[in-house]
Amino acid sequence: MTDSTHNDLVIGIVGAGAMGSGIAQVAAASGRTVLVYDQRPGAASNARAGIITRMEKRVAEGKATQDAFDMLVANLQVVESLAALAGCGLIVEAIIEDLAAKRALFAELAAIVANDAVLASNTSSIPIGAIASGLPNPSRIAGLHFFNPVPVMKLVEVIRTPDTADEVVEGLTLLAREMGRVPVEVRDTPGFLVNFGGRAYTTEGLAIVHENVATTAQIDAVMRDCCGFRMGPFELMDLTGVDINYPVTAFVHQSHFSDPRLRSTPLHRYLFDVGQLGRKTGRGFFDYREGANRPSADATSSAPPARAVSLLEASEALVALAGELELTVLPADDGICPILCAPIGEDCAALSARTGADHSRLVALDLAVNTARRITVMTAPEADPAARDSVVALLSQSRAVTAIADSPGFIAQRICAMIANLGCEMAQTGLAKPQDIDTAMRLGLNYPSGPLEMTDAMGADQLYTIMTQIQRLTGDDRYRPSQWLRRRAQLGLSAMAS
Prior knowledge:
Blueprint: E1 10-14, H1 18-29, E2 33-37, H2 43-60, H3 66-75, E3 76-78, E4 90-93, H4 99-112, E5 118-121, H5 128-132, E6 141-146, E7 155-160, H6 166-178, E8 182-187, H7 194-197, H8 199-210, H9 216-225, H10 233-240, H11 242-255, H12 266-274, E9 308-311, H13 316-324, E10 328-329, E11 339-341, H14 348-355, E12 362-365, E13 374-379, H15 385-395, E14 400-404, H16 412-428, H17 434-445, H18 451-458, H19 460-474, H20 483-491
Parallel strand pairs: 1-2, 1-4, 2-3, 4-5, 5-6, 7-8, 9-10, 9-11, 11-12, 13-14
Antiparallel strand pairs: 6-7, 12-13
Helix pairs in contact: 1-2, 2-3, 8-10, 8-16, 10-11, 16-18, 16-19, 18-19, 19-20
């Protein structure tokens, strides 16, 4: 096979859109000659001009040297036909996400380039083996999936099919490092690692909205303030575009035989069907049109703040919060005051039924996540508004409060548990090494931590409890725990333990 790390390697890029031009830029900046081709007249030339303009700006701002700029300009070339790529040792395909189109292109390329040239696809979700099917010498075909914007995003997924030669994977991995990227090796499967693992964050947020538990604004605020995510799931989907995230979600769900853990909701499909795609159309899960107001995630109350409470199944965190708030904790329920609780994976209805506590005065607080900036309050159906409002009034003196309807696992417990559980499932099925799973999810999706790190931080036993409780209460196999999570919870092991 061609040595993908050799400095005299000539790299061909087919497709000069956002991804193709980004790959061309980082490849040329690494010192290799790069030939860019696009079947659309002028597209490759325009891409080259755009790259040069961006690099000129970086030089002017002192973020790049003149020598680096000169090298990139010299290395970046445009060609007018596929035949002009015949001398390339590596070709990276970055065309539309259509299996038939990619197969046709790879068949053309296989007939043009040398027998030892490496052919790689930048597809974000189509299995590489499906693209390579029927082609001669499939051992030289692999996936090389960059993330948008390529010059900024460091992650590269190197996808190996059962036929891909070891030297091809090793060469692409080393080349990615020399391009300044962070490569992770991933087994060939629909969605690969990031697009598969990233389903949990958005689809569980959608499930919570579907159940009328909380609003999109409330969910986003909780995930930012309590869990450290840069963006909530709904502002993230509006940014990437519903026309992007819905088809990928549907494809991954269908490709995994309708695994309920990957299921979306009718609202997701509805926005796609009616063209409310997010920021690009002015409306999505939120309204971005001029004059539109973003709904508040904060609960407010004019009620007198609670001063005395009883604690149900008092945990260390609940006792500590009561002390911080200078609450009088009654030794026994007086039949009048709010009853505070901090359930793990349960909702107020289940907790009341199990303990006999008065559901009308039960006010649940999610203390499983960071509550320094925001705390989530949950009540049962037909709850006494006075009990809830007095607790909201007290809590809102020191932090933002989000008040939601009854839900096993609140918001944050549910979403974090689903992210962690899907990460554990990726480890269980050998999709990638545990450390690579976390690296990919942090770099590819800007998560505050990887799913296995999240498992260890919250505790595998606690996350297993959350999943089993939600599965029991909902009867939905969407929440079935991964065997990887179960074993490590039962044995007290790190989620990283193999």
